[in-house]
Amino acid sequence: MIKITDPLDKLEAQSIFILREAYYHFKDLGMLWSIGKDSTVMLCLAKKAFLGHVPFPLIHIDTHYKIPEMIEYRDQLVKEWGLQMIVGQDTESLKTKQTFPDGNIGRLECCKRLKTSALKNTLSGESERLKFDHLKMEYVLDDDLKAFTGVIAGIRADEEGSRSKERYFSPRNEKNQWKVGSQPPEFWNQYKTEFAQGTHVRIHPILDWTELNVWEYIEREKIPMVSLYFDQGTGKRYRSLGCYPCTNSVESTAKTPSEIIQELKSGKFSQIAERSGREQDKADGGSLESLRRDGYM
Q1: Sheet hosting strand 85-88, strand order edge to edge
Q2: Coil vs helix vs strand at 194
Q3: Which of 26, 149, 33, 19 is nearest to 86 (CA)?
Q4: Mean pLDDT throughout 219-223?
Q5: What domains can you pick out in the chain, each with its CATH number?
Q6: What are phi and psi of 109, to 5 degrees?
Q7: pLDDT digit string, tens, across residues 126-147
Q8: Could you tell me which residues come within 8 angstroms of residue 135 by beta carbon, excluding any fewer than 6 positions away?
Q9: CA separation (Å) from 117 to 63, 108, 122, 153, 245?
Q10: CA distance 100 to 134
Q11: Is the Cβ–Cβ distance between 291 and 280 less than 8 Å?
Q12: Which of 21, 140, 181, 233 is deepest in the core (most CB within 10 A)?
């Protein structure tokens, strides 16, 4: 038996195992891709797990308020890597201007509409969704509105308080609602993968990774990242990405993954939460739990 001693290799091996278990046990499987560093690392882990091929669709919930560079980066990788890409959106709320940027609802209600409800309806096939057509090289209406019952998400336990209560295989009810008390125990790397019919399951392959682990892996594997994570000469960069009306940058001169790693190791952000620049967290009392109980990522 080969003993793995490198911490990153251990995390990688565990995540690949989780991804393969998910693919084996869940028929209608998809992977949420927020375009951020965590879900992009997870995407690269999937490519490694399946020998360069991602055998399930990626799903992105487009709130219409993502920083434009994020969308450009998404579509660039979709084309270059030949990815199956599905995009969902709450078109009704956008059409009727029931959003925070339009000034008609608060931040939390906006998140519930443009993210939580949009995600639920996209996963269930209840609303229209787009898919990328690699022959036409453009997005077209998805004519296969099957429901996804297994969904892979790139959340980390150390990122935010409510996420520390998660499991690798996390059941939701038929409305995608999350109940902390119903989470199955996971001892000694034993995972529950059999659930009652109709159960919606979220799978979290990088749950035990830290922010530092993620950046170390990005540097080691030379994973392309959206440039918003790096200082472009302004002395600021983004530590966490979201919608531009609700996401603030941090003061940092880090221009490479290596420099970000040094910042994290130095303790520069040791007293500052990773999502401190996300205004919806503050509106939720500093925790995402109320949003996550309703199905938020």
Answers
A1: 138-141, 129-133, 85-88, 58-61, 29-32, 150-152, 200-203, 169-172
A2: coil
A3: 33
A4: 97
A5: 7-209+285-293 (3.40.50.620), 226-280 (no CATH)
A6: -65, -35
A7: 999 999 999 999 999 999 999 9
A8: none
A9: 11, 12, 8, 16, 19
A10: 34
A11: yes
A12: 21
Q: Note the helical H segments in the chain.
A: 7-25, 37-49, 68-81, 91-95, 107-111, 118-124, 211-221, 257-266, 279-283, 289-293
Q: Closest Cα partner for 31 from 52, 17, 47, 51?
A: 47
| Helix/strand/coil for 122 | helix
pLDDT range class, residue 199, cuts 50, 70, 90: confident
Query: How many degrees, rounded to 5, is the angle at CA 55 between CA 143 and CA 206?
Result: 115
**269, two tokens:** 């952000």
Q: Given the structure tokens 């980390």, which residue do they identify? A: 156
Q: Please name the residue that has the structure tokens 């927020």.
A: 34
Range with the lowest mean pLDDT among 185-194, 242-251, 268-277, 279-288? 279-288
> Which has the higher per-residue pLDDT, 247 or 177?
247
DSSP result, 229-247: GS--SSSEE-SS--BGGGB
d(CA 245, CA 23): 36
- Give the count of alpha carbons within 13 A of 135, CB side only: 1
- Mean of all residue pLDDT scores within the chain: 88
pLDDT tens, position by position, 68-118: 999 999 999 999 999 999 999 999 999 999 999 999 999 999 999 999 999
